[in-house]
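Hey, resending since the last one bounced:
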Amino acid sequence: MQHITRFYDIQGKAERIKNTPFLMIYSAFTKIIVSFYIVLLPLFIGDIDLGGEDSTFELLTIQIMVIISTSFLTINKLANLYGEPFSDNKTSVTVDEICKTIVQNCDEVKRKLL
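The structure tokens again:
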């Protein structure tokens, strides 16, 4: 009986975790901030004087801007994907497989007790 009570407690905790909503305001806020940063990025990187006035190192600012922008957009996308661990994405937790494993373990314990 003690194991069954503990199982129900664990199941209740898992359901509370599953039903906790991901704050969509976080997603919207990070999207706005990252977009604003990326729009302003060329203004700051283009002002850097690499190698003096006559050098052509300023052309590197385009590549640097693309790398930084891509990395920030990727971080934003990953944060949004991992913010909802129980959705239908490829990166989501496979709840069905976990449930099947729990059922198999419960059946095994039941067979051993009978």
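The two ends are 14 Å apart (CA to CA).

Sorry for the duplicate.
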